[in-house]
Amino acid sequence: MNPPVDPDVRPRSNGEPVLARRMVITSGIAALAAIGAAAASSAVFAPAGGTGVPDGASPPRIPTGAKPAPRNTPVATTPTPSATATQPPTPSNPPGVVSPPPTKDPRSPATANPPADRDQSYAQPGAGTGTAPRADAPSEARPAPQPLSQPGGSTTPEIISLGVADNDLTHAHLLSRATFGSRAVDHSELASLGIDRWLGIQLAPASIADPSGDAAWAAFPLSRLSTPNVISSVKEYSSEAARQTGQATLGAQIFSQRQLFEVVVDVFSNLLNVTTPSDSVWATGSDYAHSVIRANAFGRYSDMLHAAIRHPAMLTYLNNEKSNKANVNENLGRELLELHTLGVTSGYTEGDVRNSAMILSGRGVDYKTREFLYRADRHFVGPVETSFFTDENASADGGLEMGDRFVSVLANHPATAATVVRKLAVRFVSDVPPQSLLTHLAEVYLANDTAIVPVLKELFASSEFWSAIGEKSRRPLEDAVGSVRAVGAEPTDKLADGVKSLYWALENLGHAPLTWSPPNGFPDVTGAWLSASQTVARWNLHRGLVGGWFKGLTPPAKLSDELTPVIGQTNAQWVDAISKRMIGRPLSDKHRAVLLTYLGVDGSAEADKGNGWQAPALAALVLDSPYFQLR
Predict the structure, then answer these.
(1) Does residue 44 surpass a pLDDT of 80?
(2) CA end-to-end span of the chain, whole Å?
(3) Alpha carbon of 362 to those of 319, 353, 376: distances in Å?
(4) Quick one: which H or E segment has residue 363?
(5) pLDDT band for position 160 (50/70/90)?
(6) Rounded-to-integer distance, Cα 16 and Cα 600, Å
(7) Using one digit for the tens of pLDDT, what is the confidence trace for 21-32?
(8) Distance between CA 594 and CA 38 in Å, rounded?
(9) Closest to 509 in 3D by CA, of 48, 126, 82, 133
(10) Is 352 helix (H, G, I), strand (E, B) or coil?
(11) Which one of 127, 347, 401, 621 has the minimum C-beta count within 10 Å?
């Protein structure tokens, strides 16, 4: 397969800077190669199964407390939403409906011994993004943007008792996984609060004042409009509002104080992927991002799934508005089973897919308002039966409510629990998480009525998480956002310019937020993103960011000024100061020696202030290294 997008394609000619592909200096490449070779011999991070402890460091203390027994799932009454309602009900398994594991038969779409999902099948990079062409919005006055929806979850932080030692190693590991990249201030804050308090605050994002994240959304006003206001603000089929949603998402990933929330939002944006921008979601993409994903990312997956399967963006993206009883479109019915819930290995059949599509028929869109509309005359009437759900009286009048019951059963199914927790574990633990961890997290998911925060608490309390140091690598998005955060960029009146420039750079790397074209979401494993051209493009991006070339994403002061050697500082101490500024910790002795050789200086000699001009090159090499690329 081909790389996600050819990185040699030049960015769009929209006035944003174009990074030269061949600007990485030969000596810098040699230095980075030496760091890589040294890392291979002395282990910056241990391979899977190792301790992952750099030279001279002490391993973290692993929590050993017994895991709590799952509690029973609450049972609610069967919901009866209005036929024109746009908000999902709050359902659970309806009385009398059982959810046994589906029985495999020869009609199953699963192949022999298939991987649990697409991520595990990657051996080479995947396909491209296929975003829609740009289109300018009309110049007339636009409605004021709506207030941002607040993230779910508790508004009162609690102290999470993990029993993990507070030290530089555990702090670096937590920040590398629970944020899009650590800033110098993040290390200081975590050291002050301790792991338990810091994580407790991040797990209650609504309690966190977030002016910098709000500024990122405010810089892209179309991203905050309701569907009716998008329709009145842009030309029909203009992608500008949908594209601004992706750009504002990128801005929030860079600047938001609610970093763990943004990471989890990214996980579920891919699990319930709707390509944004794309033609069918020009008016609805922003509302989908807010009312479906962001509103429920720290709530219950059941609520998120119900919202998605009623949302016009999902319904048009997977063509369900074209489905009717005479000609059932199977796209949504299939992806609901394969991607959003049970997963390809659960053993569902082609008959299940067909019945799933019939159950969801009639869910469509009012083309004038682009809002949800259930059409009873299009709903299949008659008995439906799947491996896990049966309804012998699928009437047109009750078709919407029957679909809600179907979605509830799916959301609470053990196979769906496995799908959801695998996505979270792949993001936070490793490309192939231990089955013991997945089994436990699935039990927590089911015991807590599909609530996501309890799963996150157990994940961060697990020994599997804390022993997985260095077992994930940064994808282009995490690399770019982490680099911006590492240089210390802060929101300014040029924020939109900087975010747009980075967005186009990420589009060329195949990883601009929300732009993955197939319904399976961006891959989240190393093998999907490995190529020589990707690597060189990332190196160039690092040099552009540390050099202050991205207007609106520059550090408060030039790194050459901020990191100029001070009187009495040795060359070795100077290199350590640069490393700590960029990644929160010094390099090992062997790797520090490589950079000293690159500079051509003696580590024990006093640093020459005149060498300060080389600070950006050293900072970029630190970002190029496995210390930053592995997470």
Answers:
(1) no
(2) 26
(3) 12, 16, 6
(4) strand 363-366
(5) confident
(6) 36
(7) 333 334 454 555
(8) 9
(9) 126
(10) helix
(11) 127
Distance CA 91, CA 449 (A): 10
Distance CA 29, CA 621 (A): 9
For the chain, the helix, strand and coil percentages under 3-state DSSP, each to the nearest 5: 50, 5, 50
Query: β-pairing, 384-385 with 390-391?
Result: antiparallel
The 10 Å Cβ neighbour count of residue 385 is 12
Sign of CA dihedral 173, 174, 178, 182: negative
The first and second tokens of residue 105, run together, are 């038969």
Containing 374, the helix (H) or strand (E) segment is: strand 371-374
> What would the two tokens of residue 586 be?
């010094």
Q: How do the domains of the chain map onto residue ranges?
A: 1-42+473-631
| pLDDT at 22 (0 to 100) | 34
Per-residue confidence at 63, pLDDT binned at 50, 70, 90?
Answer: very low
Cβ 223 vs Cβ 173: under 8 Å:
no
**What is the pLDDT, as a whole number, of residue 558?**
80
Q: Residue 267 in contact with residue 428, Cβ under 8 Å?
A: no
Query: Alpha helices of 509-531 — where are they, by DSSP H?
Result: none
600 torsion bin: left (phi>0), alpha (psi -120 to 50), beta (else): left
